[in-house]
Amino acid sequence: MRIDVVTIFPDYLAPLELSLAGKAREKGLIDIRVHDLRQWAHDKHRTVDDTPYGGGAGMVMKPEPWGEAFDALISTGANDERPTVVFTTPSGQPFSQAVARELATRERIVFACGRYEGIDQRVLDEVATRCEVREISLGDYVLNGGEVAALAITEAVVRLVPGFMGNAESLVEESHEDGLLEYPVYTKPASWRGHEVPPVLLSGDHGAIAGWRRDQAVRRTAERRPDLVHPSVLIDDVDIRPVQAGDAGELFVLQRACWVQEEHDNPGVRIPALHETLDELRAWIARDTVLVARSAGRLVGAVRASLDGESWEVGRLMVAPDVAGRGLGRTLLERIEALAPAEAATYALFTGAGSARNQKMYKKAGYRLRGEIAPGVVRMTKAIRRP
Ligand SMILES: C[S@@+](CC[C@H](N)C(=O)[O-])C[C@H]1O[C@@H](n2cnc3c(N)ncnc32)[C@H](O)[C@@H]1O
């Protein structure tokens, strides 16, 4: 990758000469060139700014030096030899890991670092007729110039260029790569000034460690950046209560989302939860015993049951796919079982013959398979034991 930076303060880019560029250059991965914009200003004082048309405070960067800079840096050859030109500006697209990933695929990037009140708009318009133009902001604040932004963007992009990082795996687990912040990290010693490393990290149990890290990443993200994940993914404070008529709409949507996987796992089986109407759902929530689970206000789970003879028929046990696998299904099952009336002698439910995950959960909860009661549908039961 080749990176050109155009600035009136080339010394500001000196850090690029240090670790980053040094390492990448040694490996032959990156070619970074810094250019002084004033070499393309031809008056005695090498002037690059002038007063704004229309009046107002400050100065604006003149188009002519920038025009010549781009004439020198944009090849007139084939499209794929043309750079992506990044104008750093507080009114640009917010910079993010996703934008960094995108820029890391480019062969050439030219950074245009603004100063004063910015660059004459016609420069951006004219360059856009010749190559891809991106206006990128480092964040919602105003810097004195674009150099710091160019440095930050370069650093984030270059470490994604294949071959730059010694251990490419460390990129995969980083903050923002999977939409989550990274879990906390620890190194030796295991005990330091009375602060201990979480015991799970010393356990050698790779499954438990992966689970703990995932949980910490979700927890951190929900607490610190609710704009990235909904706080409902922290199901610690889940509120389980009887359904109300007003829950019908959300329940209808949740049900549709939850049974799509079932349909996939049980090809050819018609799944009522995916086909019934909102009115049909309203009818059974009015008739059956139904519990709903809410976390941070959001409906994340539900279950229903009704008595048929001596059988407490449990059904529609659902957990939102993004909070599945955290024990909420099991909790809902226990809560609905606890509501079985005195005349019930058995808990019973149906699930898909191909729904291996569900069956595993029900078996762990004490249910036994009683065989296929319709093509692709199995029945499971458990005797009710009362003290
Ligand atoms: C003082 S700023 C100009 C701010 C401009 N008058 C405005 O309000 O948008 C000068 C230069 O700093 C750079 N700059 C300032 N804040 C930035 C940010 N958040 N992200 C990227 N570049 C920034 C831009 O290159 C800009 O042209």
- Write down the secondary-structure element order: EHEEEHEHEHEHHEEHEHHHEEEHEHEE
Ends apart, CA distance between termini: 72 Å
Q: What's the number of extended β-strand segments?
A: 16
CATH superfamily of the largest domain: SPOUT methyltransferase, trefoil knot domain
CATH top level label of the largest domain: Alpha Beta
Radius of gyration: 30 Å
Total number of domains: 2
- List ligands, each type once: S-adenosylmethionine
Largest sheet: 7 strands, mixed
Query: What is the mean pLDDT?
Result: 93
Structural class: alpha/beta
**Which parts are unreliable, with pLDDT below 50 for 5 consecutive residues or more?**
none
For the largest sheet, list the strands in their spatial order: 10-11-12-13-14-16-15
Shape: elongated
Strand content: 15-25%
User: Helical proportion?
Assistant: 25-40%
Q: What is the architecture of the largest domain at the second tier of CATH? A: 3-Layer(aba) Sandwich
